[in-house]
User: Which sequence fits this backbone?
């Protein structure tokens, strides 16, 4: 049998889109907090100081009515 009948997998994955990056060395905006935020975190507060959000349990949310 020849090798032509076998499919070969892709060896290199191509990115679908560029990852958004923010400034390096950003600090949490809460007073007296010295946590350095990740360059991939779009929020201005660290996990401990950011408002807590509950994920959607079920159902569909209209994007036009979505907050933020």
Assistant:
């Amino acid at each position: 049998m020849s090798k032509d009948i076998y499919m070969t997998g892709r060896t290199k994955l191509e990115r679908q889109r560029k990852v958004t990056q923010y400034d390096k060395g950003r600090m949490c905006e809460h007073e007296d907090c010295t946590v350095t935020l990740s360059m991939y975190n779009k929020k201005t507060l660290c996990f401990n100081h950011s408002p807590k959000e509950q994920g959607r349990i079920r159902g569909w949310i209209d994007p036009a009515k979505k907050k933020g």
Remarks:
- Residues 19-44 form one domain.
- The mean pLDDT is 82.
- The CA atoms of residues 6 and 58 lie 43 Å apart.
